[in-house]
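Hi support team,

I've been running sequence recovery on a batch of backbones for a student project. Most finish fine, but this one hangs at about 90% for roughly twenty minutes before it completes. I'm not sure whether the input is malformed or the queue is just slow. I've pasted the structure tokens below so you can try to reproduce it. Let me know if you need the job ID as well.

Thanks,
M.K.
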């Protein structure tokens, strides 16, 4: 029999028994009517309880749901297309501009430093020694009689040319970045040049990290110092104040000991158009006023030629 039909049949049978029960009890005098009443009350409570449990178990989830008392918010209306398109374009442009500005900031500062380099006089104050050793080297350079005499001579222009190179670009410069530092070229070289490019003097400290043999400065470094110093000597004599090395001849005269200040002296011997011939030497720093004679370490001669595109180079090369 199907479960639904069986349940209905059972309920009808139970009801019939309920109706007939009083008549059966009346025909049985031995049964206490009070006990019958108690039994009937217990049966009624149990039957009703089971019906309530079955009705709760069989109730659908929708019957237990609490009726909704709040209304859904109205759907959000989109802004018109003629407002959304300009707004999107504006936000895109703002984001792009901000990102480009942040990325280009270092390049802009470098370009500004190239276009507006410090003056020769300003470069003399840009370097600040950070150790006692550097302070001592600075004092030896600027308190020496040779330096004082050159500073007082109006014919010479004093400067530290490597400090005109933007800081971001110094790592790409050999003598102004790679070789500049403790135990190397300890302080930026100090140079004295004439406006017509005829003579040139520079002072630089060479440290122990520049040695080829223990205690002796590498000959390649001395050649580099001569190459750069002779070039700077003739720059003012050329139309665009810049040139490249066409030839360089070096003669080594004496070992250069590390841990001292050396002096480079150069003079331009001839200028023809874009060509300039220069000779010079590296020597030890002594007090010639006391009769001391410098030791010539290296001598050199060079030919420099101004490139045809020199007009665009002079802003980059200092």
């Amino acid at each position: 029999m199907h479960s639904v039909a069986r349940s209905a049949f059972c309920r009808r049978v139970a009801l019939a028994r309920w109706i007939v029960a009083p008549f059966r009890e009346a025909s049985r005098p031995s049964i206490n009517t009070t006990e019958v009443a108690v039994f009937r009350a217990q049966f009624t409570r149990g039957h009703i309880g089971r019906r309530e449990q079955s009705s709760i178990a069989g109730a659908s989830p929708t019957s237990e749901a609490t009726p909704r008392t709040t209304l859904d918010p109205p759907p959000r209306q989109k802004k018109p297309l003629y407002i959304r398109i300009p707004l999107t374009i504006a936000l895109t442009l703002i984001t792009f501009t901000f990102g480009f500005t942040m990325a280009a900031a270092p390049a802009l500062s470098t370009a500004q430093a190239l276009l507006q380099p410090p003056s020769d006089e300003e470069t003399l104050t840009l370097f600040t020694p950070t150790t006692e050793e550097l302070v001592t080297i600075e004092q030896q350079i600027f308190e020496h009689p040779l330096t004082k005499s050159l500073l007082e001579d109006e014919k010479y222009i004093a400067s530290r040319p490597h400090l005109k190179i933007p800081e971001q670009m110094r790592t790409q410069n050999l003598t102004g970045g790679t070789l500049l530092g403790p135990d190397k070229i300890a302080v930026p070289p100090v140079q004295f040049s004439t406006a017509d490019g005829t003579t040139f003097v520079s002072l630089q400290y060479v440290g122990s990290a520049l040695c080829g043999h223990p205690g002796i400065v590498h000959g390649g470094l001395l050649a580099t110092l001569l190459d750069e110093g002779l070039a700077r000597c003739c720059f003012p004599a050329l139309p665009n104040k810049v040139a490249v090395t066409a030839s360089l001849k070096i003669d080594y005269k004496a070992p250069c000991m590390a841990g001292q200040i050396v002096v480079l002296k150069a003079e331009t011997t001839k200028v023809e158009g874009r060509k300039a011939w220069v000779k010079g030497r590296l020597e030890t720093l002594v007090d010639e006023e006391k009769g001391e004679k410098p030791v010539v370490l290296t001598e050199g001669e060079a030919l420099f030629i101004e490139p045809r595109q020199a007009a665009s180079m002079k802003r980059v090369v200092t």
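--
Follow-up from support: It reproduced on our side and the slowdown came from queue contention, not your input. The chain is about 45% helix and 20% strand. No action needed from you.
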